[in-house]
TrEMBL record:
SUPFAM superfamilies: Protein kinase-like (PK-like)
Protein known as: Aminoglycoside phosphotransferase family protein
Molecular function terms from GO: transferase activity
Enzyme class: transferase
Database matches in InterPro entries: AGP_Transferase (IPR051678), Aminoglycoside_PTrfase (IPR002575), Kinase-like_dom_sf (IPR011009)
Organism: Streptomyces litchfieldiae
Keyword Transferase in record: yes
UniProt entry tagged with the keyword Signal: no
Length: 247
């Protein structure tokens, strides 16, 4: 009998694995519908949707293994990282989806960033100079961009490879029009050594300073949320180390 494995769980959603089936339980039915709609449109490999009911989506496991994990060295080859970059480029070249961006405006992002920086310093979570430096770096991400079809949460664990081939990209609930460099930044967060491979596979000039700015912005914004939801942003190689690497 297959065991039930909790892949991730917090107050908003949980993902369970039973054999070769993943069950995604989400408090927001709109996220489930968005995920199914996105997977039907994108020109990259995605999991097979087995069924969905209110609050639950069942998908098949994809072949291969995740490109890596935040805080751990990636065993994937440079060619696999380049293949991930090429897959992202195909996504970004696709027609925009027929729904508005699920992300925040530049003004909202700036306000959230200011609030989180103040909270981190006021509560002694991070040193003031570390926060100030990364707030300065993050500024480069707060600029207008031409929207493309983005994944929206392209963590390294959401890209699966088999050898040098991308076999599937999972977790599309945040997909929509967005900044191409945000996707590239989230994929390479904590794995700066593979940024060159990803950009080579992506196949066009990108602004590396903006990608690094997104690393700082993203990390500053999520430290509090991660701590409140049972994750450790201070673990080796994770968000706080990403912030320290900008000093």
């Amino acid at each position: 009998m297959d065991e039930v494995k909790v892949v991730v769980a917090h107050s908003e959603r949980a993902t369970l694995r039973v054999g070769d089936v993943f069950l995604k339980v989400d408090s927001d039915q709109a996220r489930i519908e968005a995920e199914v709609a996105a997977m039907a449109l994108v020109p990259v490999p995605t999991p097979e949707v087995l069924w969905r009911k209110p609050s639950v989506l069942a998908i098949a496991a994809v072949r291969g293994t995740a490109l890596g994990r935040l805080g751990e060295p990636s065993a994937a080859s440079p060619a696999a990282w380049a293949a991930a970059g090429a897959a992202i480029r195909k996504l970004h070249d696709a027609p925009l989806p027929p729904w508005p961006s699920r992300g925040k405006s530049l003004e909202e992002l700036a306000a959230d960033l200011d609030g989180e920086c103040e909270w981190l310093v006021t509560n002694g979570v991070l040193p003031a100079d570390l926060v100030t430096r990364n707030r300065q770096v993050a500024e480069a991400a707060l600029r207008p961009w031409t929207p493309v079809f983005t994944h929206g949460d392209l963590q390294i664990t959401h890209v699966f490879v088999d050898g040098d081939e991308v076999t599937g990209i999972i977790d599309w609930s945040e997909a929509g029009p967005g900044d191409a460099l945000f996707d590239l930044a989230i994929l390479t967060l904590g794995h700066e050594e593979h940024l060159g491979d990803v950009v080579a596979g992506y196949g066009t000039d990108v602004d590396l300073d903006v990608i690094r700015a997104w690393w700082s912005l993203r990390s500053l914004l999520v430290v509090r949320w991660l701590g409140e939801h049972g994750f450790d942003p201070f673990a080796a190689g994770c968000e706080v180390d990403v912030l320290r690497s900008r000093m």
